[in-house]
């Protein structure tokens, strides 16, 4: 009989029986591995949560966009990098924040941080708008607008889209003199990121550089709506209003507030505050104070082109021979800022330097003559062909130089545009015709811009039509148009002293023309209006 497996001397069980110690060891190993995995998962989850928390806080601070907020955002990002230095979008955001401190606030020490964090973001292959927008802005800072445009165009073909790319595109277009296209890009950026003041402020400042003060003020108000304490928005808005001859009291209060926050101000903000101070002094006729404030602005930031502009204007008001060179320095600093050329030319012409004014306008043509703008039927034309503001200004300068035929040709080119300056161009041409005593040719131009219903926008056109009708002996109708002119001028804020002087002049002319009854009636009506 065969022996059983368990009997002594019999065959052993082929399966090795597990001892209790061995089993416990294996259970322990599994427990350790499981604990390690759990610890790793928990750690990664904690890291992720910390990264997300720091990133959210940094973005919120960066969106507020004041220098103090930007520095706090960088501190949050530094704390994030202590947890995870490979957070690629955080590296890109750090590059963007440093870029703003470097280029917008003129803190040169932020350039190294911009380049360092951008290189890291690119190595980690961040796909955020901050990465691409920062690269484009660096190209612009290096004086390579064509390369920046090409870079952004390639990103567009790949489907890239963000407010930061639109902002970079706008700045690239601006650098190339394509002002209309730049305006549209700024608007796209502002609409896409309406909660952030950075974008409408950039848009508003570009409009300010074009001398489009009401539009600039509207854009800058959107910046203050996004952040009521945004220092650059508030200062630039004050400057836009002062350029319009408005907002003196508001500017004074703002400057008092800003002076109490000196520690928060970067070089760019210090310069802009001094520019507002200079513009305020200029509106009050204090040219020496304006010059002093402009110089202090330039000491804070030599890149502040509005300081150069106000300095040049102050010199022109003083009829200083250095005004021409000062305007030329300003346009060299910001070559596509139309404000510097057009307002500069008018200032030089009024100072008696007509040749300097023409030289400034010639420089303007050199910058913009090769720029193309859209035309009907999908075509393009040269920007100068559509620039009625330029031709109107050139006509005024030429007229002051007694070059009447050249001035007339310039006015005709302004009228051919059929743009926003059409009414002013019509008035200017009519005034030139009146100087030639060609009343029949001047009258239809003036009637169109100074209608009998009193709804015309130009008080000077009503005054000119009054002059024309008086010259023809039509005193009653002439008085009516003078009255419309006084009414409109008062609505536009012209001083009562000036308006009373004009009213008195009309009264004297009526008396000299043998119209005493009408002179008395005119005085009564004018006095009632100008109380």
From TrEMBL:
Pfam families: TPR_16
Keyword Mitochondrion: no
Positions of transmembrane segments: 20-42
InterPro entries the record matches: TPR-like_helical_dom_sf, TPR_rpt
Gene3D superfamilies: Tetratricopeptide repeat domain
Keyword Transmembrane annotated: yes
Signal peptide: none
Keywords annotated in UniProt: Membrane, Transmembrane, Transmembrane helix
Protein name (record): Tetratricopeptide repeat protein
